[in-house]
Design brief:
This protein has 241 residues and is mostly helical. The protein contains nine helices and three strands; from the N terminus they run ααααααβββααα. The chain has helices at 15-28, 63-87, 95-102, 109-126, 137-147, 150-163, 205-212, 216-226, 230-236, and strands spanning 168-175, 178-185, 196-202. Helix 2 (63-87) runs antiparallel to helix 4 (109-126), helix 2 (63-87) packs antiparallel against helix 7 and helix 6 (150-163) packs antiparallel against helix 8. The chain is globular. It binds fe (ii) ion (FE2). Fe (ii) ion (FE2) is lined by residues 69, 73, 121, 202, 204, 206-207.
Length: 241
Amino acid sequence: MYDSILGKGMDRRTFVGALISGCAIAATGMYGLYGSSTAQASPDITQPPLPYKEDALEPFISKRTIEFHYGKHHKAYIDNTNQLAGAAGLGNLSLEEIMKKTAGSAEQVPIFNNAAQAWNHAFYWKSMLPGASKPNERLTKMINDSFGSHENLNKEFQNMGVTQFGSGWAWLVLDQGKLKVTKTSNADNPLVHGQVQLLTIDVWEHDYYLDYQNRRAEYVKEVLDNLLNWEFAAANLPKGV
Ligand SMILES: [Fe+2]
């Protein structure tokens, strides 16, 4: 379902490319991060383009915030994933597969953290769009069945974002046929816990500090009221639900 969020890069390695990169790694391995002279294939995860221009979410999220958040933070998670997963021999896996394979492994926490953050951010960019949208008829019924009203959903979503202690994420998910809002710490996400993610709001400080400083509640409310992409939420619903 989430294959379109992030996947293997278009430039899949070729035999010649592997030989070249293998030579390069072998040449630098002695001084490399992992001290290995063994050529390791990178998963070639590529950063998906922003679904809108960097200033498109203003005045709620500034161009400057997006420049740093997308251009520095998100990119770093992807670069780190390629490096760490390649060195760990996971270069043949997609991002989602890396995330699932390393979830819960004490030895592979750095790989999971970077892979999940790469995935979460790609999902987050798609969870927003310029201009407020509304849930379609199907989602409106599900929201009313699960929360009583859209207003109640927003209150619970807001509460998840504000009460997440430290860094993390607030989510709208489908769990056993019902909509729920939930929160996760740091890089964790509901996908590895068997839930279907529909929307997310990033509540790491790097996401709002330039625009809102410590006023996380204000940032979360602006996203809820003005930026959520309900078409994306509808597209994430499994068929037959
Ligand atoms: Fe972030």
